[in-house]
């Protein structure tokens, strides 16, 4: 096992097209870190630079105590699992898994022991004599995992390994990968555009974007902290199975309390008093209020019960999710919002309904797609109700 450290790493193609810029990240020994973000944000490029498959244009990459900028991929002590499995079609499963060891002239008895042990771990002992074309997608992915495991590398690198599987198999294989990491405790870097994979797999997740024109880190933290305390609006919008709700408005002060107001929607939300020091520089400024759908309820609860922390919305569509329902709504001036509440069969569609917002779970962002979270800047936590924040945002 090994640490991985990237210092001011950047990639420029053809001396003019910048893919990533000033990428700084420390990955601990045995840690599982996930790079997540939309297409084109530099996730796979960064992974390939760590692997040595892409030459870096600037910066330093260290694996363990060794700078590997000029080290060949085969000498970096890494194993990579690709999106397309990259299996040799003319070889059996056994030979696919053993091939890398054979090239390194590992003794045959040791190769057999490693391959059999990995096959047993992955439940593919009965497939060792088959060819890849005789396997399902899930089985091929297990073979690709097995080929990486037998290498016993210092670092595993995964480049969207589940993207070719169907939804049910993705969930099953995702669980297997997590269990595998818990068993092997090998340092792992995993690339995906699927936020659910990122949230469930990673010890920490690295949220990346390309909307500024170049691959950039927006926030690095534990999955729950990134979800609960997004450093900026982009992170809040990207993370979450259902998008975060946003309303544009202004921040005003009345009787020593701050309110977010949007007159067009007849909205007035009283902000938690614990945030007053952070909010004071933004008085009378245009801001964006953000909150998760599950911060809404039909009952006026929370620390400001009885205050104006409500929205009257016109319901459009109700989507059953089992124990909960998603209610698509809109404000009087046409802003679409989603509420996630406890399931009920008789929830009214096409009518005005009053919802309440739990102000302990709202965020206030500066204007713009990358407006910072002024309540939790850099993912910091203020409220005494929140435990274990461990913020670790990385500046762009």
What do you see in this structure?
The chain is an alpha+beta fold and 396 residues long. Helix content is 23%, strand content 31%. The strands form four sheets. The chain has a six-stranded mixed sheet with strand order 6-7-8-3-9-10, with helices on both faces. Strand 17 and strand 18 (336-342) form a beta hairpin. Helix 2 (93-103) packs across helix 3, helix 2 (93-103) packs parallel to helix 4 and helix 3 (108-122) packs across helix 4 (137-150). The protein is elongated and about 80 Å long. The model is unreliable at 382-396 (pLDDT under 50).
SS content category: alpha+beta
**Biggest sheet statistics:** 6 strands, mixed
Beta-strand content bin: 25-35%
The topology string of helices and strands comes to EEEHEEEHHHEHEHEEHHEEEHEEEEEEE
End-to-end CA span: 29 Å
Mean pLDDT: 88
The number of helical elements comes to 9
Strand segment count = 20
> Which segments are poorly predicted (pLDDT under 50) over 5 or more consecutive residues?
382-396
> Strands of the largest sheet, in order across it?
6-7-8-3-9-10
User: What is the CA-atom radius of gyration, in angstroms?
Assistant: 25 Å
Anisotropy-based shape: elongated
Instruction: Kindly state the percentage of residues in helix.
Output: 10-25%
